[in-house]
C-alpha cells in the first residue's frame, strides 16, 4: 500500500504515519526527517538544505525527488510506505507519479488532514521530541509522565525544531499555501484524494484514516 499524508506543518502527519507504520508495517518516508539527518551529518545535501530549512522555505524539487527516488528503491519499501511531507509541489507530485510508474506501482490514497491553521501555530510551537528515541511530546497536550524523562526510553534530553518558532511557522504555512495546496486538485482529478478531520483527537484521526484504507 502506498499512501500520501498531506497537510500543513503541525497537522499531525508524522504522528499518524508512525501509527500506520506500527499497525500496518508500512514505512514512514518523511523528507523532513531525511533532510534533518542530512543537515546533522553535514552531507552535501545537508549543507545545501540547512539555511533554506531554517528560513521555513522549501528545499529544491531536484534534491527531494532524488532523495525519494533512492529511498523507495530500498528493500524495506516493498512492504509499502506512507509519504509524509512529500510531495510538496506539483513538479514533485508529477515526478512521483513517473517514478512509481517506472516500478509498476501506484498510489492507493492521498489523505488530506484538514486543520485550523491558527491552532497549528500553537501546536507546533509547543512540540518537542526525545533526543534518544524520537518520541513526540507537547508542552500543553502531551507532557512526559515524569517531567524531563521520556516515557518510552527514559531519555532525559529533548529536542525542539528550530523551524517550529512562530515566525518561521508562518513562513512554512505561507509555503504550504503557495506551493503545496495546488497539488490537491492534481490528486482530486485522479479520484484518489480523501479527507480527514485533523482537529479530532489523535485516536479519532487514526480511526478515520483506517476507515479510508479499509475501503
Ligand atoms: P517537515 O519536517 O516535513 O515539516 O519539513 C521540514 C522542512 O524540510 C520544510 O520546511 C522544508 O524546508 C524541508 N522539506 C521537507 N520536505 C520537503 C519537500 N518535499 N520539498 C521541499 N522541501 C522539503
Describe this structure in words.
- The structure is a single chain.
- The chain is of the alpha/beta class.
- Helix content is 48%, strand content 15%.
- The chain has a 5-stranded parallel β-sheet, with helices on both faces. A 3-stranded antiparallel β-sheet has the order 6-5-7.
- Helix 2 (31-41) packs across helix 3, helix 4 (61-72) packs parallel to helix 5 and helix 6 (117-125) crosses helix 7 (166-180).
- The longest helix has 15 residues, at 166-180.
- The two termini are 13 Å apart.
- The mean pLDDT is 95.
- Adenosine monophosphate binds next to helix 2 and helix 3.
Identify every distinct bound molecule in the structure, by name, code or SMILES: adenosine monophosphate
Determine the mean pLDDT: 95
Structural class, from helix and strand content? alpha/beta
Bin the strand percentage. Answer: 15-25%
Order of helices and strands: EHEHHHEHEHEEEHHEH
Strand order of the largest sheet: 2-3-1-4-8
Basic shape? globular
Helix content: 40-55%
Distance between the termini: 13 Å
Uncertain ranges? none
The multimeric state of the shown protein is: single chain
What value does the Rg take, in angstroms? 17 Å
Q: How many strands, which pairing sense, and closed or not: the largest β-sheet? A: 5 strands, parallel
Number of helices: 9
Total strand segments: 8
